[in-house]
Amino acid sequence: MKTARYLFPSDYMADPSARVFNGRLYIYPSHDWESGVPENDNGDHFNMRDYHCFSLEDPETGLAHDEGVILSVEDIPWAGRQLWDNDVVEKDGRYYLIFCLKDRHDIFRLGVATSDRPEGPFRPEAEPIKGSYSIDPCVFKDDDGQIYVYFGGLWGGQLQNYEGNTPLPHPYLPENGETALQPRVARMTDDVMQFAEAPRQIVILDEDGRPMTADNPHRFFEASWMHKYKGKYYFSYSTGDTHLLCYAVGDSPYGPFRWRGVLLEPVVGWTTHHSICEYRGRWYLFHHDCVPSGGKTWLRSMKVKEISYDEKGDIQSE
Fold it and tell me: Which of 152, 184, 210, 247 counts the most CB atoms within 10 A of its CB?
């Protein structure tokens, strides 16, 4: 299967995070709906209010099965609005859902919710992760059991409001040849409830080994994802307003990561957001587009396609 296909035609699901638990494939998307909020560059029209969990028996031919609602805005004590992307990791038989949500001051934070089943439901903590900010968490469990969260997003994702981990008095977006804004990574505590360290900036290098600049069409915008292949760390991400999925490769979960290629060309709809997962010996790219909704950027449908690697470790998606 090299042609992408839709996984759940009966509703709008986006930003699919695919994970394998207990030999079964699960997908944790955000849930789009027609909220009536006007479209703008801050993404207010992406006004998601709950998460569902899906299971998928066969990525080649099957449809995803809706396991039901696993977390809603009204369940979260510190909630404001906009329940954007999430991801799930397992440790010692418990499942930890890391999500992003605006608090009551309209600032995006990362939160944690837990369950004893991958299908949920998930019970949220009373407060967001201390020192967290911005959007699009990916939770990566390395071979040694250490768990890292990758996050960050520009524009509506608010990353331009921070210098390092400190809020700025005024947002700042680099321009032209200036170094692009970088995603963040932090190792999690053993109980997967807090950052074990201050978040670090990830350095993404271009093909010449220089830090990506703001005018490079391959620079980071949002949608971090981490996976590992033959001992190498593959950091993939969306370029946002240039509408690509790209990937870069490094030797450490902290990077630096050197750009290696484009995973996905622009699709119908503004956003591109994805995950990469191995299942039964084959590799798959999960993503979304807006074809079924007629191009409405806030009504997206999740898809899957098979990918492979060549002898150099480059990803082949076509």
Answer: 152
